[in-house]
Specification:
Strand content: 5-15%
Strand order of the largest sheet: 1-2
Oligomer: single chain
Radius of gyration: 18 Å
Structural class: mainly alpha
Largest sheet: 2 strands, antiparallel
């Protein structure tokens, strides 16, 4: 299955499903910030996620319990690759350089990056 980019609303719902692992619509709504979206809105977004192949469900009569089919890590890899390709010409170096310069990475994070680079050399 080829992953597709999620809208902001879809990603917000997926974040909740990844955390909950399985949930009814009411469970997802309970975790969303105020103002809470309408039940029908969340239900519609979940059905769209199901059509996109991100979510599936178990039926209990007329009630559905939803669960992710795509892991958070799978989507993270897809989204970071898309970001790198779209904005950094596919260059990891350009992307890391941007985050170092623009996001003001602290010394601890810089040390962690250096350790990763050293580990790759070995």
């Amino acid at each position: 299955m080829e992953l597709r980019e999620l809208t902001k609303a879809e990603e917000e719902i997926m974040q909740q499903l990844w955390t909950l692992e399985k949930a009814f619509v009411k469970d997802v709504i309970a975790r969303l910030p105020v103002p809470k979206p309408a039940y029908n809105t969340v239900s519609t977004i979940i059905r769209i996620l199901e059509q996109k192949g991100f979510v599936d469900h178990l039926a209990y009569g007329k009630t559905y319990e939803y669960f992710p089919l795509v892991s958070k890590d799978q989507y993270r890899k897809f989204a970071s690759n898309k970001l790198m390709q779209s904005y950094f010409n596919g260059s990891v170096g350009q992307m890391v350089s941007y985050f170092v310069e623009e996001q003001k990475i602290d010394i601890k994070e810089a040390d962690e990056l250096m350790k990763l680079i050293e580990k790759m050399k070995d």
